[in-house]
Amino acid sequence: MHRLFVALPLPETLVDALAPAMEGGPSGLRWLDEEHLHCTLRFIGSVERPMAEEIAQNLAEMKASPVEVALSGVGIFDHGKRGALWARLAPKAPLRDLHERIDRRLVSLGLEPERRAYLPHITLARWSGGFIDARGWAERHAGLSSSPVTIDRFTLFESHLRQSGAEYDAIADFRLGRQPSA
Q: N or C: which end of the chain has fewer CB within 10 A?
């Protein structure tokens, strides 16, 4: 089985702009390595190899325009004993449109549609096993921002869950820049 997701890899300028927010914070956080930072467009989950190949082929045929995005604040997913710190990407509309376009293609292959509302974000740190009060971190970095950057590709990743955290392997890159089609 292959545990897959589709994401925007981050240009170095955005990774650099995230660096100040990835320091300090409450103890107990597991900060993501810079090379693992991304904006998930669609989580797929575990699929067999033939389906993984069909997904890659289908995504390669998709046409969509590049997206221009910037960092725009931070947030917290707090689920009590586990959660995550994240940075927001804006504007939401072009990212949501790309997410929906990918979702429709995956549904056409027989996968379940995405049920959660789409929030374009970059996970910076995670915690589990206890309560963490990250409000101070969120207040300090509420104004996190960057200059706009154009992202002209998205990637199909495979996720490997390890004791130390998830590791991601890029399976295929897909260029944005062709005219969108339905």
A: C
